[in-house]
Design a protein that fits this description.
The complex is a heterotrimer of chains A (about 375), B (about 575) and C (about 375). Chain A is α/β, with parallel strands linked by helices and about 375 residues long. Chain A is built from 15 helices and 5 strands. Chain A is elongated. In chain C, β1, α3 and β2 form a beta-alpha-beta unit. The chains are: A alpha/beta (about 375), B alpha/beta (about 575), C alpha/beta (about 375). Chains in contact: A-B, A-C, B-C.
Chain lengths: ~375, ~575, ~375
């Protein structure tokens, strides 16, 4: 019994590793994705380009503008001299925002009257616009504090002190890179298992396998082992890269991480084998993997919070194993979680792993013989 | 002199074979083919037949030399060449999603057939190919033979001056083959030059001109007579008066002075070496017969392969210890299988005894593959009883599967795994371990001469070696029954001979063999066979009993192929009349 | 180029599309699912953020907290102690904490040096930034109200009046859905086209085609036309869904939108044809298409992630991604209107790439097997 399954698992490994195309699909796309995602996928904005239309000649407006030009978040690109220049600057995407200071700005402030500043922001990308708006508020607040102190304005009755926990500098890379670990592990697991039966069907070896004394369950186990080993190994590799290359801190428990990883890989294998037993050709298998992957990633909370999704869609995410594993990953990397805090995630993953494996073996038996 | 239909002038063609190696597919080939004749291109696997075809069609650029079709250089005047030729590649080039009509329409458009003449031409071709009733069926739903005829029809739309057919009859049953030949003959009579490659040497007899290639070089050239004449007086038909032709065939094959010994219609066809004299022994009756192209082909190739004989079979070690008392090993009773409303197998019954070679014959779509898959447990029967090696296949599957070996049509091996890894995997899958494992692996490498290839990937082996490896994998666990599904389809005559020699030895040692084939000559190797048509058993018995069913008084002794065609055609006609 | 041959080939191609389930899956099902997911499922706009409030019951504190209860952005929950709130944050029950000390009321009325502690879960940095901005918004509203109530003594010197053009409500759907059109057209143009050409190689039909008098130009054009039509149909589907299902405004002209999309379709088809001339196996060509066209269109095009924020080497690389130019046009034509300088500059980029890819696949494809 053991000999037979072992023989099968060894064969699966060799088949994956000795084929140039298979080897390439297992290692090249993950590597490319790690680099692209790690560097390009960022929500942090820097170098917000802006133009200034200052109708005021006083010192106060210069002081306000100094708060922008001195900030690492802003980069001044143009000085405007008329109202009509504003629209083209924004429309043509030369600048993301225009700061418009009216002619009575300094005199208002010196007369102890609140002054207004108009900021026109390009809203085509609403997320960028919202973030830019936030930075503008921060810069203005800093100016207000200085001005109030030096010119005898009353202090605002209460100050806001904002701290962010787990990621003090709010680097989106800390959020994205652990997510990539989950994403790539899913890709690799699905590709190893999702195409394995179809590959054998195409080359005719599947019949050969079915006439051996190996039962459907043995075949299922034998085909799962390489996925498990390769999935876990590649996840480990990417996690090492996350910590040592992308400098993402790891603060939680390794046990908690690997428990989640194991359950996640098993549920990925179950889904891969389900696709595999349904697909007749490798092309169908690849298409199936793709059709599952795209929604699974989008609905996992990888880039956008699940909480923002409407109710029905949120229910769909409960069936997405990546959703739970991302919580485990981010919890153990950034929030210092141990096994206890993550118990409900493990439970959900274990249920998904069990159900997908059972379904896979059912499909297997009913399509195989 | 008139322009030749096709000329090759010092043509060389090489391909990169991975790992920096270069394979020479054709080496300095020069030849010319006259107009209006049927030329056969013969040669073992890997001889360069397909490369030659593709060069002739202008699909490959020669590395040296030039190729011309009716005087047009294929590289310099590709347009003129394309207008002149009709080409059917090995895989027919049909669009599976399109119907028969849509495929024809497409190729008519591509070949610029004027709409005015199109209708008449279609009618003509449909009459020729008998595809009329399937006019609006999708190509994917056609049988192999019908696809072949449709592929041919597509190549014939504009009546090409030169028709190139790459192995048009592989995987096609005798009836379809006969129909295809009727079309080719008619075309030749109407002035089309035909060049076809084939692995069936009986087809070579019907051609005007033969070209034999081996390893990219011209080995022989001439009409069939010029091939046969040198062998005059060296071919005999030997009858075994003791009634054990298979044993005698094996004995003759190893007799000094005998080049080739083949079972043929219950007798043994012997080709003697040049200068050897027929040494008739007791219990043998020797009659001189006319030589055939196949004899010439085998003699020609064997003269270049001195090592071949040693490679073949050394008996005595295939299966150790399964010498059990005779008895029935496979019983099928009223076996049925339906797919939806279509009944593929309509209640067949037969028994197979121990160490028998049992054949399952039938045309494409006769239900023999379905029956075969049920026998080896790949498909559960809809109803009926089936016992294999004492086990009910549908229940005690695992135990029964331990006792059977299976070689599938395409020698299903793991192409990316080496020979040794393939052997090791199948040994493991059958639960071999320890000393037994080592012993069986050693046996497989020695017995099948696989030692030198143990580190090569199975996918890179020649067809002959693939077949050996597939057979070795299926025999590692010393099965009582060996299932072979069309094991010789598309395989050249030399490999086929080696294969059957091995099967004979195995049967001799007590292994029961179940084989499907549509090579009718191979049916002669079976002890008993059943002939299937439209899901039913038409005839059962020994080869001579089945042949006898087609005997016409006064006519010549029918071959198995004659019997097959007569029986199947008769059956199809009667069912058609009944319905 | 021969009309009969070409029309025969094109008819064949259409019949194959209609009868091939995998073509329908890529051309219709996938875009539909993607549009629904992005239109309904994906949003970067935080709504109803669970927020822990730890505050005394003084009237001053209640006035500030009232702002959180009224805001559509928050779902506030009261916690009695800071440690209970911290615990809730660690267990991901809330995304942030607003903490007012018990002497909040006294300090406000006294020296006016009350502090408001805000803690946000920074794991999702983007979300955390947005939440801080919303909290800051509530705070400044409260300040303004206080100033009105209590006179200029506590007035704020400078008030910013933000004017967000094109998308005043900051709906992320308004830029995600148009950007998605680039993804869909990449799928149809590059992935599907690469697949169908390599399928011809794999099944041996290319060999039969090449032996007929068709020219390689006929074969290439016969692949371009049907998938161009399919891509434009995908565009029409996306535009219709954007208009009527997701109410994303289209400010520019339909004509410009379709012209620019047609241009991009040519680029995508060129990439698809190029891939299939290099990879004659469906599996390999699908892998290359996903890695070389689909992923970059997703990540390096400005569709979700802002290009200007990427590190310089990556930003340079994005200039090689055709989708980048198309996404810029799409976001402008949908969000802002027919802004010619943006459209023309990016269209020039697309033209160059179309000529390059189509020209290269033309050069590389020969009517031969070797």
């Amino acid at each position: 019994m053991g000999t037979k399954i072992l023989a099968l698992a060894v064969k699966e490994f060799l088949a994956l590793m000795r084929n140039k195309v298979a080897r390439m699909t297992l290692f090249v796309p993950p590597l490319v994705q790690l680099i692209i995602f790690g560097y390009a996928a960022t929500f942090n904005i820097r170098d917000i380009s802006y133009a200034v239309y200052n109708q005021d000649s006083g010192a106060a407006s210069r002081e306000l503008l100094a708060h922008f030009s001195g900030s690492p978040y802003f980069r001044q690109k143009a000085v405007l001299t008329s109202d009509r220049q504003i629209a083209p600057e924004i429309d043509n995407r030369h600048v993301l925002l225009v700061i418009h200071i009216g002619p009575r700005f300094s005199s208002d402030l010196l007369a102890h009257r609140p002054a207004r500043v108009q900021v026109i922001i390009d809203g085509r990308n609403s997320n960028t616009a919202a973030l830019a708006n936030n930075y503008v508020s921060e810069a203005t607040e800093a100016f207000n504090r200085d001005w109030a102190r030096t010119h005898g304005w009353g202090q605002p009755p209460a100050q806001l002190f904002i701290r962010s926990w787990f990621n003090p500098d709010l680097l989106s890379r800390w959020f994205i890179v652990p997510g990539i670990v989950g994403l790539l592990t899913l890709v690799v697991t699905l590709l190893t298992t999702g195409l394995s039966v179809a590959r054998e069907r195409e080359s005719g070896t599947f019949d050969q396998l079915l006439v051996t004394p190996l039962g459907p369950f043995d075949i299922l186990i034998g085909k799962s082992i390489p996925g498990l080993v390769i999935g876990m190994a590649e996840a480990t590799l990417i996690m090492v890269a996350a910590v040592f290359w992308f400098d993402v801190p790891f603060t939680g428990s390794l046990l908690a991480l690997y428990l989640g990883l194991f359950l996640f890989v098993v549920s990925g294998i179950g889904i891969g084998l389900m696709i595999s037993s349904l697909a007749v050709t490798q092309q169908q298998g690849a298409l199936g993997v793709f059709l599952f992957m795209v929604p699974a990633v989008i609905l996992s909370g990888f880039a956008t919070p699940i909480a923002n999704m409407p109710g029905v869609v949120r229910y769909v995410t409960y069936f997405d194993p990546l959703r739970y594993f991302l919580v485990v990953l981010r919890g153990t990397f950034l929030e210092g979680d141990g096994v206890g805090v993550l118990a409900s995630q493990y439970a959900a993953l274990a249920v998904l792993a069990f159900v997908s494996m059972v379904l896979a073996s059912w499909l297997f038996r009913h399509r195989g013989s | 002199m008139a322009v030749s239909a096709l000329t090759f002038d010092g043509v060389e063609k090489r391909f990169p074979a991975g790992g920096g190696r270069i394979v020479e597919a054709l080496g300095g080939l020069s030849l010319a083919i006259g107009t209006g004749v049927i030329t056969a291109l013969l040669g073992p696997d890997g001889a360069g037949k397909t490369t030659l075809m593709r060069l002739a069609a202008g699909l490959l650029r020669p590395d040296a030399g030039k190729v011309a079709v009716f005087g047009h250089d294929t590289m310099l005047e590709p347009g003129a060449v394309a207008e002149t030729i009709g080409y059917m590649p090995q895989r027919f080039g049909l669009y599976e999603e399109l119907t028969v009509r849509q495929n024809l329409d497409l190729y008519a458009d591509l070949q610029g057939l004027a709409p005015a003449v199109r209708r008449a031409r279609f009618d003509d071709l449909l009459a020729l190919t008998a595809l009329g009733p399937f006019w609006s069926r999708r190509a994917s739903a056609l049988s192999g033979g019908m696809k072949q005829k449709l592929g041919l029809a597509c190549a014939l739309l504009r009546t090409p001056r030169l028709l190139l057919l790459d192995e048009p009859t592989v995987g096609v049953d005798p009836i379809s083959r006969r129909e295809l030949w009727a079309i080719i003959d008619r075309l030749a009579r109407e002035g089309t030059t035909v060049l076809m490659s084939t692995a069936y040497l009986d087809e070579a007899e019907r051609c005007h001109d033969l070209i034999v290639l081996d390893e990219g070089r011209l080995l022989g050239r001439g009409d069939p007579v010029s091939f046969r004449t040198p062998l005059a007086g060296r071919t005999f038909l030997v009858r075994d008066t003791k009634g054990e032709p298979r044993r005698l065939q094996q004995e003759l094959a190893h007799r000094p002075g005998v080049v080739d010994a083949q079972l043929h219609g219950g007798e043994i066809r012997v080709l003697l070496a040049d200068g050897a004299s027929p040494g008739s022994q007791q219990g043998e009756a020797w009659d001189a017969v006319q030589p055939r192209v196949e004899d010439a082909f085998v003699a020609l190739l064997l003269s270049r392969r001195t090592h071949w004989r040693q490679d073949t079979v050394r008996s005595g070690s295939a299966s150790t210890g399964v010498r059990l008392s005779p008895g029935v090993l496979i019983t099928a009773r009223n076996l049925r299988r339906s797919f939806g409303s279509f009944e593929a197998v309509k209640g067949i019954s037969f028994d197979v005894s121990r160490s028998e070679v049992f054949g399952l014959l039938g045309a494409n779509g006769a239900g023999k593959t379905t029956a075969f898959r049920m026998l080896c447990g790949l498909l559960p029967p809809t109803s009926g009883e089936l016992s294999v090696a004492g086990a009910n296949m549908s229940h005690a599957g695992r135990a029964a599967r331990q006792r059977i070996g299976y070689v599938s049509q395409r020698f299903a091996l793991y192409g990316d795994l080496s020979v040794a890894q393939n052997l090791r995997f199948f040994a493991g899958a059958y639960g071999l371990r320890g000393a037994q494992l080592a012993a069986r692996l050693r046996w497989a490498e020695e017995e099948f001469g696989l030692g030198p290839y143990r580190a090569s990937n199975a996918g890179t082996l020649s067809v002959g070696h693939k077949q050996r490896l597939a057979l070795a994998c299926a025999l590692l666990h010393e099965p009582q029954i060996l299932f072979l599904d069309e094991p010789t389809s598309g395989v050249d005559p030399l490999v086929r001979r080696e294969f059957w020699a091995r099967i004979n030895t195995l049967a001799h040692e007590g292994v029961t063999i179940m084989v499907t084939t549509h090579f009718m000559e191979e049916a002669e190797y079976c002890d008993r066979l059943v002939l299937m048509s439209q899901g039913e058993v038409l005839a059962a018995g020994t080869p001579s009993e089945v042949r006898a069913l087609a005997r016409v008084s006064g006519g010549p002794e029918p071959t198995m192929e004659d019997a097959f065609i007569a029986l199947v055609a008769g059956h199809e006609q009667s069912t058609r009349r009944a319905s | 180029m021969n009309r009969m041959r070409l029309s025969g080939l094109i008819r064949k191609e259409f019949l194959q599309i209609v009868r091939d389930p995998s073509a329908i899956a890529i051309a219709v099902v996938l875009p539909f699912v993607l549009l629904l997911l992005f239109g309904y499922g994906i949003s970067l706009d935080a709504r109803r953020v669970p927020l822990a409030l730890v505050a005394p019951n003084s009237p001053q504190a209640q006035q500030l907290l009232g702002g959180f209860y009224r805001s559509q952005y928050f779902m506030p929950r009261r916690y009695a102690t800071m440690s209970a709130a911290r615990n809730a944050l660690a267990r991901r029950r809330v995304d942030g904490i607003v903490w007012l000390r018990s002497d909040f009321g006294r300090r406000i009325l006294g020296r006016g040096d009350a502090g408001i502690g805000v803690f946000v879960n920074g794991v999702d940095a983007n979300n955390a930034t947005l939440i801080s901005a919303y909290i800051r918004g509530v705070w400044s509203n409260w300040l303004a109200q206080e100033a009105r109530d209590r006179g200029a003594a506590i007035a704020v010197p400078v008030e910013v009046e933000p004017r967000i053009w094109f998308n005043a409500a900051l709906r992320s759907r308004n830029y995600l859905v148009p950007g998605l059109i680039a993804i869909i057209m990449t799928l149809i143009g590059a992935l599907l086209t690469a697949q169908v050409v390599s399928r011809e190689w794999e099944r041996g039909t290319m060999e039969a085609l090449m032996a007929t008098p068709v020219s390689m130009g006929d074969i290439l054009v016969s692949k371009l036309v049907p998938y161009f039509v399919l891509g434009m149909a995908g565009l029409a589907l996306s535009v219709a869904m954007a208009e009527w299902l997701f109410s994303v405004p289209l400010r520019g002209s339909m004509l410009l939108l379709f012209t620019a999309s047609g241009l991009y379709m040519l680029v995508a088809l060129g990439m698809g044809l190029l891939i299939s001339t290099v990879a004659k196996n469906q599996f390999v060509s699908a892998t290359i298409a996903v890695v070389a066209t689909f992923l970059p269109a997703f990540i390096l095009s400005g569709f979700i992630f802002d290009l200007d924020s990427m590190p310089f080497p990556i930003r340079l690389m994005t200039h090689l991604v055709a989708a980048r130019y198309f996404v810029a046009i799409l976001q402008t034509v949908f969000g802002a209107g027919d802004v010619w300088p943006v459209v023309l500059a990016n269209a020039a980029g697309l033209c160059i790439m179309a000529v390059f890819f189509l020209g290269l696949s033309w050069r590389l494809s020969r009517k031969r097997l070797d």
